[in-house]
């Protein structure tokens, strides 16, 4: 019985890695759509959100199967319950990548009033956070999870940089207001992705230690 349970836990890890990979691709594609102003890529990314939703359902079904059909001990319960919490944040990251693409589509015909260095840096940081958070879960690596949480400060700093830059541009020319709002919304989505990655890392730490702290507050 335990041997079968352990095999299913390995399968759970594989599913989590697959979902992490889907999210990583989604973030990369939404940035590409934004930078290249490519509506086709934006649409493809929005459609790919269905794959993320499907993967979430697979993980939830397997977790419920493990809880109902097996007799997990306390440490196993933490691993399974953490996965259920994590996939909620992972699914929301997919939603936010799709939301960014929707804004990118609205801006696809515009001449950008600013370069996108800070937003691209936010995307890079949040991608690393998501990938490392899932790796930390699979490898039960508390140090790596704590590294993810620490990286959120960089994302917050970049968000503040974008906000300051946009305020300056609006002050220089009020006609920049509409596009500034769009860019601020995009930066906020990336900031929220960082928060979700932090949540994921918090649940990783819980799965290892049994203690859950909310680092977003």
From TrEMBL:
Claim: Cytoplasm is one of the keywords in the record: yes
Pfam families noted in UniProt: PhoU (PF01895)
Stored InterPro entries: PhoU, PhoU-like_sf, PhoU_dom
Source species, domain of life: Bacteria
Gene Ontology annotations for the cellular component aspect, listed alphabetically: cytoplasm
Annotated GO biological process: intracellular phosphate ion homeostasis; negative regulation of phosphate metabolic process; phosphate ion transport
Segments forming domain PhoU: 17-103, 119-204
Cellular compartment(s): Cytoplasm
UniProt KW keywords: Cytoplasm, Phosphate transport, Transport
Reported function: Plays a role in the regulation of phosphate uptake.
Family per similarity comment: Belongs to the PhoU family.
Self-association state and partner proteins as the record states: Homodimer.
NCBIfam families per UniProt: phoU_full
Name of the protein in question: Phosphate-specific transport system accessory protein PhoU
């Amino acid at each position: 019985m335990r041997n079968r349970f352990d095999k299913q836990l390995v399968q759970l890890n594989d599913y989590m890695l697959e979902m992490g990979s889907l999210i990583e691709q989604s973030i990369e594609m939404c940035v590409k759509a934004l930078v290249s102003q490519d509506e086709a890529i934006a649409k493809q990314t929005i459609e790919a959100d269905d794959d993320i939703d499907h993967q979430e359902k697979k993980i939830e079904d397997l977790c419920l199967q493990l809880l109902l059909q097996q007799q997990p001990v306390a440490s196993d319960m933490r691993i399974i319950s953490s996965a259920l919490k994590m996939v909620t944040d992972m699914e929301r990251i997919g939603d936010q990548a799709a939301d960014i693409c929707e804004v990118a589509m609205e801006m696809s015909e515009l001449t950008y009033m600013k370069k996108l260095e800070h937003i691209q840096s936010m995307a890079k940081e949040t991608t690393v956070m998501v990938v490392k958070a899932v790796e930390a879960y699979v490898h039960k690596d508390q140090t790596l999870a704590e590294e993810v949480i620490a990286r959120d400060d960089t994302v917050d700093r970049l968000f503040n940089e974008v906000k300051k830059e946009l305020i300056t541009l609006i002050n220089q020319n009020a006609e920049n207001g509409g596009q500034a709002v769009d860019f601020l919304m995009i930066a906020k989505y990336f900031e929220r992705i960082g928060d979700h990655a932090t949540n994921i890392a918090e649940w990783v730490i819980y799965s290892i230690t049994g203690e859950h702290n909310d680092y977003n507050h």
